[in-house]
Design a protein that fits this description.
By secondary structure, this protein is an alpha/beta fold. Helices cover about 20% and strands about 25% of the residues. Helix 1 links the parallel strand 1 and strand 2. The longest helix is centred in the middle third of the chain and has 17 residues. The radius of gyration is 17 Å and the shape is globular.
């Protein structure tokens, strides 16, 4: 159960004098293609110095996404639209009741350390879950943030959160997904993140008996984000919602989902 990432330094604060990170929450499910187009446009503007960093919290309609490492056989039942995506990782499900946080930070200013950034995102999830008395843990041999399920049997664990990112010109795209109260049966249409062993499943706060709203989680996420990445400020939706997708940067890299 030991994980080498537990020994890393967590957090990538902005340099002194940097602007606060914009904090945007969409109240209605956002179509995946529209979200990715807006995110890519924002990242391009951040890289060009025209916009400030942003964390965007949202939900998607039911859908599956295939990361850069996804295999065709991981799609078991295409009951929802399937989108190929530039993030690292394999197949995952997004839908109502799952909080998505797209994290657009400039690592050129904060420190060009992708491994530390990924570990800090994991730590952000773990600290946020702790607010609900849920102990999330990393695993060296498996992706995601996991909770132990002794009620199901010896060695059983369920994934409650995933992350997958891409980096373009040292600005991050995509981010994390935490299960609050999604329809867990929808995960059965795929091999989630390539993990197929029977003793490793998927869970949510609701499945664990935790009564928490999306707003409750959002409050915890913002509170735990700031010690790791710095101050935030409310961001009002503007032209971003109708942004045109930019040309994909050739100098980008994807990082597998965790």
């Amino acid at each position: 159960m030991v994980n080498a990432r537990d020994a890393l330094t967590f957090g990538l604060p902005a340099p002194p004098g940097a602007a606060s990170v914009g904090w945007q929450i969409s109240s209605r499910p956002v179509p995946y293609e529209s979200a990715v187009a807006a995110m890519e446009a924002r990242v391009e503007a951040i890289a060009g110095g025209r916009e400030e960093e942003l964390v965007w919290l949202l939900e998607h309609p039911p859908l599956y996404t295939a990361g850069t490492s996804a295999a065709p056989e991981q799609l078991l039942d295409a009951r929802f639209p399937v989108f190929e995506t530039g993030r690292g990782g394999q197949m995952t499900y997004h839908g109502p009741g799952q909080r998505i946080a797209y994290v657009m930070l400039d690592l050129k200013r904060r420190g060009p350390d992708v491994r530390r950034f990924v570990a800090s995102l994991e730590e952000w999830i773990i600290r946020s879950l702790a607010a609900f008395n849920v102990r999330g843990e990393r695993r060296e041999d498996r992706i995601g943030v996991w909770v132990r399920r002794p009620d199901k049997g010896d060695g059983y664990e369920d994934k409650i959160a995933a992350l997958g990112i891409r980096v373009s010109r040292w600005v991050t795209l995509h981010g994390i997904a935490i299960n609050v109260e999604p329809e867990l049966a929808h995960f059965s249409g795929i091999v989630p993140c390539g993990v197929s062993e029977r003793k490793y499943g998927v869970t949510s706060l609701a499945d664990l008996g935790i009564t928490a709203t999306m707003t409750d989680l959002d409050i915890a996420l913002r509170r735990e984000f700031e010690p790791l990445f710095g101050p935030t400020r409310d961001y009002t939706v503007g032209r971003q919602a109708n942004a045109t997708p930019p040309t994909r940067e050739p100098s980008s890299a994807s990082v597998p989902s965790r």
